[in-house]
Amino acid sequence: MEFSHYPVMLGECIEALDIKPDGIYVDCTAGGGGHSEAIVSRLTTGTLISLDQDDEAIEACKTRLAKYNERSKVVKCNFSDLGSVLDNLDILHIDGVLMDLGVSSHQLDTPSRGFSYNCDAILDMRMDPRSPFSAYDVVNGYSEAELRRIISEYGEERFASSIAHKIVLQREKSPIKTTLELAGTIKSAIPEAAARKEAQHPAKRTFQAIRIEVNHELDVIKPAIDAAVSRLKSGGRIVIITFHSLEDRIVKNTFNSYAAGCTCPKDFPVCVCGKKPTVKIITKKPLTASERELETNARSRSAKVRVAEKL
Q: Could you say which architecture CATH assigns to the domain 113-215?
């Protein structure tokens, strides 16, 4: 299957990066290389480093960027390893960073990856196939309390308790092995009247929660931002695309902490910590997809883009 991943809000992201032809840029989540190609095509003597932990994404990105080999490097890793990658390449400072925190269209649309509740496949959901931990382990190994917590917290699902209980009851009969088995179990735990009112599939939030848990998606966001900000040159930009409120909250709060500087308690008469603002927030409110983009890419509906500039 050809790797397909629509580069979300491409124009807005490229404009926000304010690309310098001789700059060094990092696309932390390269996917199929759509954002990467748009960046590297604007470079003359600069360099683009594209990161991804997915083998299929790496191969697709390498193919797409082949004609830019002299200006691009593709590295397989999680974007939380940004600092180590730059160290290995003897790069001290960079001019811009892009992070697209969404799961790729290719991953969602490839049944064998086990991300989708619409196709039958072995429960998987690993973004990095090398990981020994999959959705099967979460669904069949977590306690009812642990399942309830992640479904409520990561999926923001109001029926988390009944879904967790139903999963445990079902797996006592036999392990839940496939995506459709799991989707059916989730659906049976939600009152029919509530399910009918939903515009989305009743399993969507629970699948999202399990995917986040499997890939530790929220845990790596702040460390990755910390690494990126520490390496940005003055005037360099960090651009981040999020797709749900938990991701966006982490990005917003991290940006705000860097923009605020001082961490002294509010009742201190003067600052004693000495910390100064590190970034300037460019987007007071996040950018969202245009109506034109929504017509061609419905998955961009929940996308939010936040931008900060190193001082």
A: Orthogonal Bundle (1.10)
